[in-house]
Model the fold of this input.
Amino acid sequence: MSSPQVPDGRNSSTEFLISEEDEEFKTFYPEIQSLVTIIVPICFGIIALTGFFGNTLVILVVVFNKKMHSTTNLLIVNLALADLLFVVLCIPFTGTDYVMENWPFGDTWCRIVHYLIVVTALASIYTLVLMSVDRFLAVVHPIRSRILRSKKVIKISCVIVLWIVIVTVTAPVTMLHGTVKYKPLGVTMVTCCFKNSNSFLSVADYQITFFAGSYLFPLMTISGLYLRMITRLWRQGGDIRMSAESQRGRKRVTRLVVVLVITFALLWLPIQLILLLKALDLYHATTKLKVVLQIVAQLLAYTSSCINPVLYAFLSDNFRKAFHKVSEYFTQVIYSTRCQQMTSLAKNIRKNKSVRLEGLMFLYKFANILTIYNFRQAH
Done:
């Protein structure tokens, strides 16, 4: 299990600053290693599968449903895209890093993975910032912002500019990371981590910058927007006349965005604090409890890439109905396929006596499927 020395963002894979004289660490390291190489990849696998199918479903539902082409949903698609990229391009390699004793993918891919981790993390949080700005305009300046928020070209341009800025600003990350050889317990290992030998930025400066840019500043911006909004959102009547249904719809969308922001902040808080304290030399993962805390903190941060589709299903009527339609569609596809198989098998049964028993068993199973399908349709 390789151990990057200064993990950034989502890739904090069990990085320990190991000393040859640290007898306590030598005692529990084999135990922790054996547990981590089994449990953590399983957790990563569950998060990766859930995130892949959930975020893909969100993107497809919005893209192919014209009624859901709102500003908020466009940003939700962008958030799902960032999470999907992380799930596909980062989680598999971090999971492998836990299982393998050495980083097996080489120096170039080490730099790329760390770069993608930072890019997707920033894309997620600043998409939430854009969603909060959209809610602010909709609540505080509903009339003046209506034209601005309704033009698809402007909305798409904001998303494209966001990605261009993030991809450009984070380019130096590739120069700050790479493979490093070290000896944790007298054995030479190769890890993918922050390179202390770089002359561009120190570990502390890098982590403070990452904490401020990917967590503190965006959350302070979001908090300021919502503090300004709160007095207008729940005020009935006011200087802008709205129907009761419009009021409820506006509050539902705003509640969804607020829950997304709070969830992101809570899931990322533990690992952000640990990484910041480690960079300031105030936290050392040299006890069993601290190692476990760091692993749990990383798993929580990873969970942020798969939990949003679940929140949409619980908090948004439109997404819940769309998910239900997709489920019905796939049920009908499976049902239609079974019908075709039954028709084909029935023809073979009439022609060939040797397949009658197999055919009868298939028809029995199909009858059960048909009964379940009809029951669901009726209820």
Summary: Residues 1-21 have pLDDT under 50 and may be disordered.
